[in-house]
Automatic annotation (TrEMBL):
This is RRM domain-containing protein. Pfam families: RRM_Rrp7, RRP7. One of its GO terms (cellular component) is CURI complex. Residues 88-101, 246-267 have a biased composition (Basic and acidic residues). Belongs to the RRP7 family. It comes from the Eukaryota. Residues 9-174 form the Rrp7 RRM-like N-terminal domain. Residues 88-115, 233-267 are annotated as: Disordered. It comes from Xylaria hypoxylon. InterPro entries: RRM_Rrp7 (IPR040447), RRP7 (IPR040446), RRP7_C (IPR024326). Residues 192-312 form the Ribosomal RNA-processing protein 7 C-terminal domain. CDD domains: dRRM_Rrp7p, RRP7_Rrp7p. GO terms for biological process: ribosomal small subunit assembly; rRNA processing.
Length: 313
């Protein structure tokens, strides 16, 4: 796509300058494609969001904060959600029964309980093994800005980038706190991959504590739902609703009731068909009587006309 052009899909081209590195001492230009965010399922923040495609593999929130500050000044950028963050958010470690029942029962917990549960769930996650994540080539992201005016300002600033010397430099203006790549990054990964038995054991213990608590909550909820009607007046069918299988006489009684119901329905249908046949025969008889009367009147009229006829001698 040509520089500073807009595609048929509404994407604008944002060229950024990649400075040379010791491992790759070549100056390069990378192109990010951006447009107003328009997902299939609309949200309240779409008007102040930008959809970014083909982001650099080493992208972080700090990189885009510095990039947008370079374009339109500070205070316009709020946050960014990367494609891999959306995928990881869909993974659930809920017990199967708890996850299934949660769809039918939504009860708000107190704020202190909710905060405590979140802390426990965070502690039940294994520690990260990378100090900084890399994105796949061609990945996408959604940037959240302060307001809709900020989106317009960024799109206008992108269109004004006509000379390579004015391209924003990737990584320029970064504050401290972004881990570097190279040997230090690999050494940090090697160290984070072996957190120690005490750390792993603590995570496992916390995970099963959370898991067992959710299982118990799901069990108590299932017991309550067995006899608790929902908004439509229906009682949800859950596992464990019967303590033992039905006896043979109960099964035979239920079978006989089903057969009696089917036979009753069959008899009703047969009676209904008999009623239709009777009505049809009555209609045919009435039609025959009507035609017979009409024929009688025609014969009588013909006799009367014949009686008035006098042939000439």
């Amino acid at each position: 796509m040509p520089e500073n052009s807009t595609s048929s899909d509404g994407f604008s081209t944002l060229p950024i300058s990649i400075p040379p590195l010791p491992s790759y001492p070549v100056h390069a230009t990378h192109y990010i494609y951006l447009r107003r965010n328009a997902p299939r399922i609309a949200t309240a923040d779409d008007s102040r969001s930008l959809y970014l495609s083909n982001i650099p593999t080493d992208s972080t929130e700090a990189h885009f904060r510095a990039l947008f500050t370079n374009l339109v000044g500070a205070g316009r950028f709020e946050s960014i959600t990367f494609e891999q963050d959306k995928r990881s958010a869909k993974i659930s470690h809920e017990p199967a029964q708890a996850e299934r029942l949660a769809k039918h029962h939504k009860k708000r917990k107190r704020e202190d309980e909710e905060l405590q549960y979140r802390k426990e769930e965070a502690a039940a996650e294994l520690p990260e093994t990378w100090s900084r994540e890399l994105h796949r080539s061609g990945s996408s992201a959604v940037a959240l800005l302060a307001d809709e005016k900020s989106v317009d300002s960024i799109l206008k600033a992108v269109k004004k980038l006509t000379k390579p010397k004015k391209y924003p430099v990737w990584g320029e203006g970064l504050k401290d706190g972004v881990p570097v790549f190279g040997a230090q990054w690999l050494m940090a990964h090697n160290k984070l991959s072996y957190p120690g038995n005490d750390v792993v054991q603590a995570v496992v213990d916390t995970y099963f504590t959370v898991f067992n608590r959710k299982e118990e909550e799901a069990h108590q909820l299932a017991k309550r739902l067995r006899n608790e009607p929902d908004e439509d007046g229906f009682v949800m069918v859950t596992r464990g609703g019967r303590s033992a299988p039905a006896r043979r006489d109960e099964a035979e009684e239920a079978r006989q009731k089903m057969l009696d119901k089917q036979q009753k329905k069959k008899d009703e249908m047969q009676n209904f068909y008999r009623f239709q046949l009777r009505e049809k025969r009555k209609a045919e008889q009435l039609e025959l009587v009507k035609k017979f009367d009409e024929d009688k009147r025609k014969v009588q009229a013909m006799r009367e006309r014949r009686g008035r006829f006098r042939p000439e001698m």
